[in-house]
Design goal:
heterodimer, A: 235 residues, alpha/beta, 4-stranded antiparallel beta sheet, B: alpha+beta, two-stranded antiparallel ribbon, 16 helices, 11 strands
Chain lengths: 235, 468
């Protein structure tokens, strides 16, 4: 079963009384436990598509199924709960909570799902160790470099063991060396934690690392390429 | 990481703003408490004055309160000694009582016939020992010991008069009063000598009543008090004025005479069986008024059913007390409302700024799976913390300032008072006021954070994440 399926999805934004189509006729199946990249120029609809996949926005038309759940019918609270347990987010600007340490940032989603303290501690330590930040656990976000912050963000995104991790331009605010390291780390984490990663990027290096690549233009999918793996990527 | 500890850390992000908000809360809370403490002291002071002067409750003829001032002898309590005996020995009332004492109030004309002046007065005949006992009532712990009545130890024909009475009756020199102005051109004496019939009356009365009196034509200040007897005939008592006292209010100062009850009864009732116009009951505590009143009404309906009596509390007898409390309550409410409005806008402004600053963070939290209610709770929790800290610090500040004011030795003269009293602010121990103010402050703080918190919770996740 696919982790993510989009069928005839449309999204239009209304700006100053003018309807601006952001996505048209999007049909997409994302293979589970794969590394899928959404690419395209600025304004092509990558972020809009990620927002819809991440259940933080709703389509005007069409159906989105994430982890076997039709999300359109869910209420706002139910969607929040769904995101908490099934979707992890990595943001371009890291978006760590500045009043929490690295440890606490990773721990926070686990608190929201009421994980017991011992299990919580074990999970956070494991994730921080996996992203190489065990020694920075008590550091505040302001005391970490951009790369380190993004590592914490990746650990936080994986804290509740979601089926799907979404990353919007995760390397855009990093230098190329750090960006490469982050992509490598995400790839490792995706494999290690058997999660499905979908992220937007126009960085060619990211495309090289992907299992599947989906190219968008003017709100439409213009190509969907399977770069690795046996199963097909349909569009 | 609980919501409260996260809220606490969020408050520490912009310390200057949080401190400024906290300061507004502390100043607001302390101001309310200090003013409330000041008002409370005035109310307790007034209550103490009324209770010392007239007791907590009074038994009167049931029509005296409304009609008695015109003809007090028509509304007297006959056989009052029996009534006092019943009340003082009642098993329910006795443990509540400190003093039970009769009094006789009436109107008349006081004259200094030698100076050819007279004026209408109202007089009060009292039992001095009882009244001195009533002066010891101090349920609210006011500092100092009250002065005993000037009539204490005086002769049976002694009287204390208001300063105004002394001035009008030209008794200032005789009483050696300072600050007692005399008219620049003395009015011609129209009654240089006491009419013979009146003189006879007073001489006989004085001789009969005052074994220790200086006599009708002795030295010192004397006045003649003319009143209607129970039979309607005029009667005159010649009184030995022992002191003139300021009464605080000019109307009382110009008309008040205090004398011994026996003297007053002789004047009004002569050889007839004497009566009184009121029996004052002083209780140990003001809070016991409802219980005592209920028992008094029982007695009036049963044991004392033969007497046309009614019981009144001091608030009914002194409407000025309730009016003053009402006025201060209105001022207190107005000031509290103003301060609440200031707190409302200060906290609301702080929370609005926090929501704007943390819009992306709100979007992040929502994306991570925090519900709208969770976001609302987070901001409300910040307001709760601000409110709790503000209320606690406000109470502590008020207590400290009150201690400072109370220890400063500042004095003031309340309306109706003669002597200045210590400026005292009652905050310590006023649990109702302390808890009410703290709870009110907390409530206003939470209320002012509610709309910003609601706005934060209703932000669209995508829009919030895009916020710059």
């Amino acid at each position: 079963m696919n982790t993510l399926t989009l069928t005839d999805v449309h999204k239009t934004y209304r700006l100053d009384k003018i309807d601006v189509p952001a996505l048209c006729d999007i049909n997409l199946n994302v293979r589970p436990q794969c590394f899928t990249v959404l690419s395209g120029t600025s304004g092509s609809g990558k972020t809009t598509l990620l927002n819809l996949i991440g259940c933080i926005d709703r389509p005007d038309r069409g159906e989105i199924m994430v982890a076997g759940q039709r999300v359109a019918a869910l209420s706002d609270d139910a969607l929040s709960d769904f995101r908490l347990r099934h979707i992890g987010f990595v943001f371009q600007n890291f978006n760590l909570l500045p009043v929490l340490t690295a440890y606490e940032n990773v721990e926070y989603p686990l608190l929201l799902i009421s994980t017991k303290p011992a299990a919580r501690r074990k999970r956070v330590q494991e994730l921080l160790s996996a992203v190489g930040l065990s020694r920075h656990a008590e550091h505040w976000p302001g005391q970490l470099s951009g790369g380190q912050r993004q590592r914490v963000a990746i650990a936080r995104a994986l804290a509740t063991a979601p089926e799907l991790v979404l990353a919007d331009e995760p390397t855009a605010n990093l230098d190329s060396h750090t960006g490469d390291a982050i992509i490598a780390l995400m790839r490792t984490m995706q494999r290690e934690y058997s999660a499905t990663f979908v992220f937007s990027s126009h960085d060619p290096k990211v495309l090289l690392a992907a299992d599947d690549a989906v190219q968008l233009k003017d709100g439409r999918i213009v190509s969907a390429t399977r770069r690795r793996g046996a199963e097909g990527l349909s569009s | 990481m609980s919501t409260l500890s996260l809220a606490l850390r969020n408050l520490q992000r912009n310390r200057r703003r949080s401190l400024a908000t906290l300061l507004a809360l502390v100043i607001g809370g302390a101001s309310i408490l200090l003013f409330g403490g000041y008002v409370q002291n005035i109310v307790y002071g007034m209550q103490t004055g009324y209770v010392r002067g007239g007791g907590h409750l009074q038994l009167q003829h049931r029509d005296y309160f409304l009609f008695g001032s015109a003809d007090p002898t028509a509304y007297g309590i006959a056989d009052y000694a029996h009534v006092i005996d019943v009340v003082a020995h009642d098993p329910v009332l006795a443990p509540l009582l400190t003093v039970v004492t009769p009094s006789l109030e009436f109107g008349g004309i006081a004259g200094n016939f030698a100076a050819g002046v007279s004026r209408t007065i109202f007089a009060s005949g009292i039992v001095v020992a009882d009244r001195n006992a009533m002066l010891r009532w101090n349920d609210y712990g006011f500092p100092g010991t009250p002065r005993m009545l000037a009539l204490t130890g005086s002769s049976a024909d002694a009287a204390v008069i208001g300063m105004g009475v002394a001035r009008v009756l030209r008794l200032c020199d005789a009483l050696h009063l300072e600050h007692c102005p005399q008219p620049q051109a003395a009015a011609p004496a129209t009654g240089a000598a006491l009419p013979q019939d009146v003189a006879l009356l007073t001489d006989r009365d004085s001789a009969a009543a005052a074994g220790t009196s200086t006599g009708a034509d002795g030295e010192g200040a004397r006045l003649e008090l003319l009143a209607a007897t129970v039979g309607g005939a005029p009667n005159v008592a010649r009184l030995n004025v022992v002191k003139a006292e300021a009464q605080g209010v000019k109307e009382a100062d110009d008309a008040y005479i205090e004398l011994h009850l026996n003297q007053a009864q002789r004047l009004l009732y002569g050889p007839a069986r004497p009566e009184v116009t009121a029996i004052a009951l002083q209780l140990h505590h003001t809070a016991e008024i409802p219980a005592a009143m209920a028992r008094l009404r029982q007695l009036i309906a049963t044991t004392l059913s033969g007497y046309p009596l009614a019981a009144y509390d001091f608030e009914t007898l002194n409407p000025y007390y309730g009016q003053t409390i009402g006025m201060f309550n209105a001022i207190f409410s107005f000031i509290s409302l103003l301060i609440a409005a200031i707190v409302l806008f200060t906290v609301g402004n702080t929370m609005n700024a926090a929501v704007v600053e943390r819009t992306v963070e709100i979007g992040t939290l929502r994306a991570m799976g925090v519900r709208r209610g969770g976001i609302r709770r987070l901001f409300v929790a910040e307001a709760v913390l601000l409110g709790v800290f503000g209320a606690v610090l406000g109470v502590l500040a008020a207590l400290a300032l009150a201690a400072l004011i109370n220890g400063s030795g500042l004095t003031w003269t309340p309306p109706g008072n003669v002597d200045p009293i210590h400026l005292h602010v009652r905050v310590w121990g006023e649990m109702r006021m302390l808890l009410g103010t703290a709870a009110g402050l907390l409530l206003v703080t939470v209320f002012s954070a509610w709309w910003p918190a609601r706005r934060a919770a209703r932000l669209q996740v995508v829009e919030a994440l895009r916020h710059v």
